[in-house]
Write a structure and sequence with these properties.
Blueprint: E1 26-40, E2 43-50, E3 59-62, E4 66-73, E5 81-84, E6 110-116, E7 122-128, E8 138-144, E9 158-167, H1 172-182, E10 191-194, E11 201-205, E12 210-217, E13 223-228, E14 233-238, E15 241-248, E16 250-253, E17 258-264, E18 275-283, E19 296-302, E20 313-314, H2 324-332, E21 352-363, E22 378-383, E23 386-388, H3 395-400, E24 432-434, E25 437-440, E26 445-452, E27 461-465, E28 470-477, E29 496-497, E30 499-502, E31 506-513, E32 522-524, E33 532-535
Parallel strand pairs: 1-4, 3-8, 9-12, 11-19, 18-20, 21-26, 23-24, 25-33
Antiparallel strand pairs: 1-2, 4-6, 5-7, 7-8, 9-10, 12-17, 13-16, 13-18, 14-15, 14-17, 18-19, 21-22, 26-31, 27-30, 27-32, 28-29, 28-31
């Protein structure tokens, strides 16, 4: 993977000896990663798949179950699998990001992931975590409640994963390699997909029945609006955490996020029998031409099927591509259940606070090379003006084996040079590079404010925290004001997530407890690097040495 990308947060620590949690069933899977010929948009291409499927196989488990997955690599490229959103409690080795928690799985070799699903129920997903292999290597994770525990909403007649993705006629690995070489933005995809299909997905339903749609945004880059013509959706769960239900005609879902919605197969009043389209298209504040602005369509088909061509066609109305107001209003409606059965354990006090600027900068073009970024430079994503250098040794391995020189513990927790973040950008947009971490004591209460910047243009930035959930306690537009904005934080029922979008031209504040010794990282999507935080072992006051 290339060495330039937005920051990630990584938490290190030795494993704790804690009482064993009561375990549920153990579920075994085998993932054979191999090349498979797949045809989309009249183009046949050999793509990496798991067990020959695109999208890959569904993992079904329950809260409290142990999941064991043997991954065998039959392709020429290195591969790892990340279990996106799974809280890797004391199992950081199995989180999946290459050269962070593990060495990649080489051609002809295998690796066994072994983790337990703890305190989560809903929808997550798995995907490759090397370069852009996740363009085709992804699939759903369905987490059911513990046996005998009901949903806190009407039991659905059927549950259906709806996985959004992207299709590239060209090889995504060649696309990202070219972008890293030239410093330009990567070429965009040729189409969005629903369950691997750019235009032919059909959801067959029976009138009057309730369906739970498990929405997953597995696209590399784009936030998506989603709607079904003449039907209302009820949001009940995001990122495997229940929320206070609310009705909406349109859902916004960021790359890496999941959203469970209830659909009643009953068109809104006054709508005749018809063909009801389901549409998804991007939300983007970027410049035209830098994102895939196509729309993917599917069909909601009522039984009995076979009469679609004779029925009128209804299309949902989606917001404009750059409708930031809708984005802000939708995300503001998301609230945790915050009830005795599902409490919102929000940190009320803060032990460690950080302020991260997030955005695109530049790096000078190497000698004897032509670069295609701004003014002949290379684009470089960064946090606090630091862009990640991928190490040759996995960071978690370097910590446990006391390998010096792999990383340094001096990542800046505030911007090195403050400026008007959403105003006129500074003249010098060059970033520094390094493999840096922030070290946290075990069980520290942490607050991180992430601020978008106007360097290379304001843009919404999806950010994902590995190994942890966090609470989104506040967000707003313009520059974050530490004197005024915390007074408006929601510390009662903020939504609990693992992936959040930093608003275009704005900021978002998250809080969490650093209670998972091992590792975690926060990075932009698509992944490719970042900067890290590290959790120190809190047992008996022991602290691990910083290399």
């Amino acid at each position: 993977m290339g060495a330039r990308c937005v920051a990630l947060a990584l938490f290190f620590g030795t494993l704790l000896v804690l009482p064993q949690l009561s375990r549920g069933a153990t579920r075994h899977y085998t993932f054979n990663v191999r090349m498979t010929n797949v045809t989309r948009l009249c183009k046949t291409r050999a793509i990496p798949t798991v067990n020959g499927k695109f999208p890959g196989p569904k993992i079904v488990t329950r809260e409290g179950d142990r999941v064991v997955v043997k991954v065998v690599n039959h392709v020429k490229d290195n591969v790892t699998i990340h279990w996106h959103g799974v809280r890797q409690l004391r199992t950081g080795w199995y989180d999946g990001p290459a050269y962070v928690t593990q060495c990649p799985i080489r051609t002809g070799q295998s690796f066994v992931y072994d983790f337990t699903v703890t305190g989560q129920r809903g929808t997550l997903f798995w995907h490759a975590h090397v370069s852009w292999m996740r363009a085709t290597l992804y699939g759903p994770i369905v987490i059911l409640p513990r046996r005998g525990v009901p949903y806190p909403f009407p039991k659905p007649y059927k549950e259906v994963p709806i996985v959004f993705g992207e299709w590239f006629n060209a090889d995504p690995e060649a696309i990202i390699a070219q972008a890293l070489q030239t410093g330009a933005g990567p070429n965009v995809s040729d189409a969005f997909t629903i369950n691997g299909l750019p235009d032919t997905f059909k959801l067959k339903v029976q009138p009057g029945k309730w369906y739970l749609l498990r929405l997953i945004n597995a696209a590399l880059n784009d936030e998506l609006f989603f709607s079904i013509a003449n039907h209302t959706l009820t949001v009940v769960d995001v990122d495997a955490s229940y929320v206070k239900p609310f009705d909406t005609d349109i859902v916004l879902i960021t790359p890496g996020q999941t959203t469970n919605v209830l659909l009643r197969a009953e068109p809104n009043a006054g709508c005749p029998s018809a063909t009801h389209l389901m549409l998804a298209r991007p939300y983007s504040t970027a410049a035209p031409g830098t994102f895939d602005n196509t729309t993917v369509a599917g069909v909601l088909e009522y039984a009995p099927p076979g009469h679609i061509k004779s029925l009128p066609l209804f299309r949902p109305s989606l917001p404009p591509l750059n409708d930031t107001a809708f984005s802000a209003n939708f995300t503001a409606r998301l609230r945790s259940l915050a009830c005795p059965e599902y409490p919102a354990n929000v940190p009320r006090r803060v032990d460690r606070s950080s302020f991260f600027t997030v955005g695109l900068g530049t790096t000078p073009c190497p000698a004897n090379q032509t670069c295609q970024g701004p003014n002949g430079t290379k684009f470089a994503a960064s946090m606090n003006n630091v862009s990640f250098d991928m190490p040759a040794t996995a960071l978690l391995q370097a910590h446990y084996d006391n390998v010096a020189g792999v990383y340094t513990a001096d990542f800046p927790v505030t911007p090195p040079e403050p400026f008007n973040y959403t105003g006129t950008p500074p003249n010098n947009t060059n970033v520094s590079n390094g493999t840096k971490v922030v070290v946290l004591d075990y069980n520290t209460s942490v607050e991180v404010v992430m601020q978008d910047t106007s360097i290379q243009g304001i843009e919404s930035h999806p950010l994902h925290l590995h190994g942890f959930d966090f609470f989104v306690v506040g967000q707003g537009f313009g520059n974050y004001d530490p004197a005024k904005d915390p007074a408006r934080f929601n510390l009662v029922d903020p939504v609990q997530r693992n992936t959040v979008g930093v608003p275009a031209g704005g900021w978002v504040a998250i809080r969490f407890f650093a209670d998972n010794p091992g590792e975690c990282m926060v990075h932009a999507l698509p992944p490719g690097g970042a900067h890290e935080l590290g959790i120190e072992d809190g047992v008996g006051g022991q602290r691990w040495p910083v290399a």
